[in-house]
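Long-time lurker. I teach an intro course on protein structure, and each term I like to show students one example going from raw sequence to a predicted 3D structure in token notation. This year I'd like something fresh instead of my usual example. Would anyone be willing to generate the tokens for the chain below so I can use it in lecture? Attribution to the forum is fine with me.
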Amino acid sequence: MGRPSRIPRSSLIALSAVLFSAIFLLTLPLSSEAHTALATNYQQGVYLVFPFENAGTSPRHEWLSQGLEELTIQQLSAAGEEIYSHQALARELDRDGLPRTSRLSRASMLHIAEELDADYIVVGRFFAKDSSLTIEARILAVNSMTLQAPIVETGTLDSLMDLQTRLVWRLLKGSGKNYPHTQEDFAKRQHPLRLDAFEHYVRGVIAVDDEIRIRELREAARLEPAWPQPDFALGMTYYVRRDCSSALPWFARVPKVHERYVEAVFATGVCRLFTDEPDRAEDVFAALLHALEEDPAAGSEIPAILNNLGIAHGRQGKIAAAKADLARASELEPDEDDYPFNLGLLALQGKDSKSATKYFHEATERAPDNAEDEAMYLYATEKSGKKAEADKERAELSGVLTAEDVPVIRLNAKKESLAKLQRIKSELELTALHTVSAESVTVASGAETTLSADSVSAQLRRGRQALSAGKLADAEKEFRGALGQDSKNATAHRGLGETLHREGKNDAAIGELLASLEGRDSAIARTMLAKIYLEQKKNELARTEVERALKIAPNYEEAKKLSEHMKNPKQDENKPGGVR
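-- Reply from a regular --
Happy to contribute to a lecture. Here you go:
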């Protein structure tokens, strides 16, 4: 799970704004062309905030780095701006193989912003000593690569909230986009927080030790009982530990208006499956699915929700409903093997070995490196009376999997035995954006501000949202539309490649991914290529792409997993049993 962010505690030093600006001067000047280009009517875009750099020498103030990032995110979000969450940035750093605490170059920041289709980057620094604090921040426009002049605020640590509110407002006001709100209007949109509660919250979310995290978050929740951030963070901490009895009361405190509400509800449903309460899990997932269907901005169907609803139905003996749920999830995400695998377990539960064989075989085609899929396929084949065929299949295994890699399954077809093998989706990714769509934001004057419907970035965002919701035709249309405006856009080519892959058009998908790599080398695109090559039994090409991906991003988890599967498919995560 991604971790949120940080902030204050003791004290810092008051430097003059002049001295601070001299210390903090960043290298890229704001050109006269930039001033002209920015002198337009205010237009919202998507912001990406990076941790603020500690320009001081005291390590005890280091937590302010992520704290100022988190506070900036919250303040921009409260003002109605679209902004990526800290979790989204953390996931992208993981994909690029970069430590979450690494100090990034400007080029790396731009690369990450391009991968996320962000329009603006917020970067900053701070200097703290004793009871004083000086903060500098500036906005970098991704497309034009123009950098706003630095905004500097100096004050006491105790005034941090007001200090940062004023700085963020000045950032927007000085962006050259004719920001329409006064400082007073901007401040009214902010949720007032106690400094000590915010400090405990940040210290909690950045803590490595679970007990320290829980203690700090509980104190934050005690000091600010109406603030839902600690509630959600506590719920997730317990949830990751599978301590559902402790997680559920905290999830219940997350209000519907909170940006993580859907995740809290989803986790609640998963807990009901963990504690074998399928009727209550059904209520949660059915309600959640209905709510999302009513919200056009969310995407009508989410495969992970359908998967878990299908499991809940199946455990109650509602086989027809379970089949429909899992089949729909499988249709929406045709490269995911968990859904046909769960359908195979459902068929075994109904003593239909022939159908189980078909489903498990489909799972092996989707994930040819998964030993558990292959093991269950052989088991179902044997159960359907084709032992000789199963023995022959095992003897002929070679390439990605060998006979030694695939365990022999021995279990009865009782519901409780098969339930242990079910693959529950425990994580939900709706959208990386931290707040609501800009189309729904109403400014103080009563006029509505919207993103340009025809901009490349808007089309890319709509394409990714459609892809996340399984609306492949819509996703393809948006990505092709973006390419119509910018034929060399690497992100659009990659998105179209992923869409075509899900549609089963692998040759066309390869072409798009290669076009994406011509524009920008990417571990993500190379890993996608490797997966397609692996499906096509082109193991050497797959291996080459994985190696290239790991050279770009040595810590990219998807590439590491694929590499390990290709080297040694017999891994713990592929052994029968457990929830994935």
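Some talking points for your students: The first helix runs from residue 17 to 24. Strands lie at 46-49, 53-54, 82-83, 120-129, 132-141, 146-147, 151-156.
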